[in-house]
Each structure stands twice: as C-alpha cells, then as structure tokens.
Amino acid sequence: MKALKFYFENTKGTGVLATADSSGKVDAAIYSRPHFLEADQLAFIMRDRLTHQNLTSNPHATFLFIENGPGYKGKRLFLKKVKEEENPELVGKIKRRRYTDDKQEPRFLVYFTLEKQLPLIGDGTD
Fold it and tell me: Is 114 in contact with 4 (CB distance < 8 Å)?
C-alpha cells in the first residue's frame, strides 16, 4: 500500500469512481486521488449524491486513474467499502481543493479496502 500511496502523491491525472446500486444500475463520476489514512485502507471524500447512495446498498466500486501525458498509463483499483464517517474537521484538514462556492453540504469520508489492482490497460501480466 505504501507504493500506491507514493504513486498517488506524485502522479497527476484524472480519476473516475464507478459504482452500482443493489440492482446493478451503474454510475461513474470524476473523483480526485484517494487519501491514505489508515493501514491497508484508502478513502474518498464524497457528498451525499448518487455515488455515495450507491455505496449504501452495494459496497463495491472501481477507481480508474488516467495519468496526465501521452499514451494510456494509469491504474484500476477494485475496492470494497468498509466504513464511513461524517467528520467535518478531518475532511477540512485533508481535502486538497478549496472552492469559494463551497456549500455546507455534509461530506462523508468513505473508507475502502483494495481488493485488486491492475494497470489502466491490460491484465497486468505484460
């Protein structure tokens, strides 16, 4: 997990978090890089929108990360939600972006375990 933390701290790119509800209806949303807060877990900050709602009925998600630059480099992380908390102080401390139109909507810190990691393209056997 340390190598993955180092990768995300030092690599710029675009992330997409994909989820599905209990009936299999899918959603994908742009998300920033994950936060590494606890041993063997990573977390995302999310508002109570479709991605968060999907995770209440189906704990599985996939994070697709495309590195900036030429070609197709990046990672695919297969995740399982293990817990969440509504902790405004911690969220305020770790969030990377500051917006002037930052509404006072509740934000959740959602923790995941990493079930599988693959490169952006291929099955990782190359």
Answer: yes
Q: Tell me how far apart the alpha carbons of residues 17 and 28 are, in angstroms, rounded to a whole number.
A: 6
CB burial readout 75-114, b (16+ within 10 A) else e: bbbebebeebeeeeebbeeeeeeeeeeeeeeebbbbbbeb
Distance CA 20, CA 2 (A): 28
Nearest to 91 by CA among 48, 57, 59: 48
**pLDDT digit string (tens) for the chain, length 126 residues:** 899 999 999 999 999 999 999 999 999 999 999 999 878 899 999 999 999 999 999 999 999 999 999 999 999 999 999 999 998 888 888 886 665 455 678 899 999 999 999 999 999 886
**Cβ 72 vs Cβ 16: under 8 Å:** no
Domains of the chain, first to last: 2-96+105-119 (2.30.110.10)
